[in-house]
Design goal:
The chain is of the alpha/beta class and 278 residues long. It contains twelve helices and eight strands.
């Protein structure tokens, strides 16, 4: 079934969990889609896990569009949501509208995601009014990494937690269809999920959220950078990949690969004709 913002809304009403993963390429998106994942996020985390950068700050709108196009080709049923990268929406409502429009028109995204609370509500409202669904993102918002002083759990103190509850309410009032809660205590995530009527999608926010999202390279055990506590590695694909690359390297070096089974042959007659002197 094609997933839309309405199926997300219905899932919360029916108490059914929503599953999301990040996706940056066609093949992964297609496999996730076939596995029944409801939503694919073309996250600006691609700066780190796809490009090897230290953080997400230098990711551009053009990069997001490029990856969104690839993901859309693989996503037959999943809802495709694309991150608006750093400084593509914070600068003004007009910039936010222009860049959200590009991500939808050129990339084919079905929704966009913006990081931040009350301060970005004018942008959220304008984008939603233009007919583009918006997913919010509060808690640990990686585009504010320098302001946070590192990748740290947010909302542990009551005062901070209250600000996050107010941010979630403000985003809902501005028209967001869903909100990512990243790296917040599970008690706070439960409180937010029960306070607002739109679905919360947790990452490092415990099981009370209406849905969950993970970065797929983390889930597959591929990423060797930061290993947050909330990541569950379902398989060690990185180890399997390294073993395969190593075996390939030594088989080529030893002349084991390619063997006859992996090569093309001429008929005996054709070979004789080729080697026969005129
Ligand atoms: O960029 C990203 O991958 C994200 C998720 C971690 C929610 O924003």
């Amino acid at each position: 079934m094609k997933q839309t913002i309405l199926t997300f809304k219905r899932a919360k009403e029916n108490n059914e969990k929503i599953t999301m993963l990040t996706a940056y390429d066609y093949i992964s998106a297609s496999l996730m889609d076939q596995a029944g994942i409801h939503g694919l996020l073309v996250g600006d985390s691609l700066g780190m896990v796809f490009c090897g950068l230290e953080n997400t700050l230098s990711v551009t709108v053009d990069q997001m569009i490029y990856h969104t196009k690839a993901v859309r080709r693989g996503a037959k049923e999943a809802l495709v949501v694309t991150d608006m990268p750093f400084m593509s929406y914070q600068t003004s409502v007009a910039d936010a509208l222009y860049n959200a429009g590009r991500i939808v028109k050129e990339g084919g995204a079905e929704a966009v995601k913006l990081e931040g609370g009350k301060e970005i509500c004018p942008q959220v409202e304008a984008i939603v009014k233009a007919g583009i669904p918006v997913m919010g993102h509060i808690g640990l918002t990686p585009q504010s990494i320098n302001a946070f002083g590192g990748f740290k759990v947010q909302g542990k103190a009551a005062k901070e937690a209250k600000v996050l509850i107010e941010s979630a309410e403000a985003l809902e009032a501005a028209g967001a269809f869903s909100i990512v809660l990243e790296c917040v205590p599970e008690e706070l995530a439960k409180c937010i999920s029960e306070t607002i009527s739109i679905p919360t999608i947790g990452i490092g926010a415990g099981k009370a959220c209406d849905g969950q999202i993970l970065v797929y390279q983390d889930l597959l055990g591929m990423y060797e950078g930061i290993a947050p506590k909330f990541v569950k590695r379902y398989v060690e694909i990185g180890t399997a990949m390294k073993a395969a690359f190593t075996q390939y390297q030594s088989e080529v070096a030893d002349g084991v690969f390619p063997d006859t089974a992996h090569s093309f042959q001429m008929t005996k007659e054709n070979f004789e004709a080729l080697t026969k002197e005129d």
